[in-house]
Design a protein that fits this description.
The chain contains 4 helices and no strands. It is mostly helical and 121 residues long. The protein has a domain of 39 residues.
């Protein structure tokens, strides 16, 4: 049975038992007895429990969204670093091409090829 309970559920149950003991209620008190001690109806008791549960679910959603946001920020930082590295390499290649005249060499090869094509016609 304990494998069906999460860590949070176990903590909530233990906390609930402490509250029952502190308020002088029996450990096997049902919802009706708890609501009578609180001075509310069972319906109101279930409404309060529902509000508490929906707030807990909202906190879980917020927590998961924060984790996802942190993961995406870390991924973005890694991608930004990789982009900067590639951009630096490309700038270095462009400078090397200019220094060694690669663009002019390619342009002259194109002109040579074009003149050969024109001769064959």
């Amino acid at each position: 049975m304990n494998e069906n309970l999460s860590q949070e559920e176990v903590g909530i149950l233990i906390h609930g038992k402490k509250i029952l003991r502190a308020k002088g209620l029996p450990m096997d008190a049902d919802v009706k007895a708890i609501c009578e001690v609180a001075g509310i109806s069972r319906k109101t008791g279930y409404q309060w429990a529902g509000k508490l549960e929906s707030a807990a679910k909202q906190n879980d959603v917020e927590h998961s969204l924060r984790e996802e946001n942190d993961r995406l920020k870390a991924e973005h930082a890694e991608l930004q670093k990789r982009y900067d590295d590639v951009r630096f390499e490309n700038e270095g290649r462009k400078i090397a091409w200019r220094i060694h005249g690669v663009d002019e060499l390619i342009a002259s090869k194109k002109n040579t090829m074009n003149s050969r094509k024109n001769r064959k016609r």
